[in-house]
Amino acid sequence: MTKQESIERALALFDEGYACSQSILMTYAGLFDLDEDTAKKISSTFGGGMGRLRQKCGALTGSFMVLGLAYGNRDPKDMETKLTAYRKVRELNQLIEEIHGSSNCFELISKHATEAQITERKHHKSICRQVVADTAGALFDMLQKESQF
Question: I need a surface site. Which of 47, 59, 81, 85 has the fewest CB within 10 A?
Fold first, then answer.
């Protein structure tokens, strides 16, 4: 999978109606032998800033799940691996904040959509789609840089 293919797949899934979190995890799930149905279910409640709480952006939380698959620890005493994964999460979060000024769903939407657009769910096209694309691409770069695929 190329970077452009990962971006296009994440956007196609998002345009199909999957949550931002699902779109990201489903895009990368196969690289880690995670079946698509499980990926859909695991990430389904993280859209809309985690269950529409408008907290952490779902594209990011889906990406954090992928980073867990790539870098996560299995041994609870393996602090080095755990802290490496946490550092990766912070790196990706910082990058998206540099691009968009925030990684908070409410703040992202509020900067780019009116209340009427949010009510009509038009914010997906004004900001969410772009954040999904940017996050999918940044995640690809991060994984490729570390030779995770």
Answer: 81
